[in-house]
Amino acid sequence: MITCVITYDIDPNRRELFAQYARNWGECSPRCGADLIGYFAPHEGSTTTAYGLYSLPSLAGYEAYRARLAADPLGRANSEFARREGFIRGESRLFVKLASAPHGGRA
Q1: Of 89, 98, 87, 90, whose CA–CA distance to 35 is shortest?
Q2: 33 and 56 Cβ atoms separated by less than 8 Å
Q3: Which domain of life is it from (predicted)?
Q4: pTM to 2 decimals?
C-alpha cells in the first residue's frame, strides 16, 4: 500500500473554496477507488498550506485511479472549479509507505 500526500499552497483569503474542493474530493475519491484519509485545511501556523492524503495499492493503482477521476463527472467539475477560481497556487505530490506498523496499543 502507498499513500499519496498532496501538499497545496492555497490563497489564504479563499480557504472556503478549498474546503468545497476538499468536500468534493471526499465524495468522488472513494468512489473512484482511493482509500481517502482526508483533506486538511490550515488551522494554526501557516495559513497557506493544506494537505490531501489517500492510499492505493500501488503506483499502477494510482494511475488507474487518476483515469477514473478524469472520467468521473464530479472529478472533472472539481478540477475545473479549482482552475477557474485559482485558489490553489501550487501543489506537489509525495508517495510514501507506512514504516511504523504494526503500531502498539495505547496505555
Answers
A1: 98
A2: yes
A3: Bacteria
A4: 0.91
Cell 465524495 belongs to 27
C-alpha cell read off for 49: 498550506
Q: Which residues, in sequence order, are bridge partners of residue 8? A: 50, 91
What does residue 100 show for φ and ψ, rounded to 5 degrees? -100, 0
**What cell does 37 get?**
484519509
pLDDT band at 7 (very low <50, low <70, confident <90, very high): very high
Here the cell at position 103 is: 503500531
Which residue bears the cell 489564504?
12
Residue 41: all three cell numbers together: 485545511
What's the rounded mean pLDDT across residues 6-15? 96
Task: Annotate 40-102 with DSSP letters as a single string.
Answer: E---SS-SSEEEEEEEES-HHHHHHHHHHHHHSHHHHHHHHHHHHH--EEEEEEEEE---SPS
Distance, in Å, from the CA atom of 49 to the CA atom of 46, rounded to the nearest integer, reads: 6
Q: Is 2-96 a CATH 3.30.70.120 domain?
A: no
- Reduced to 3 states (helix: H, G, I; strand: E, B; else coil), residue 104 is coil
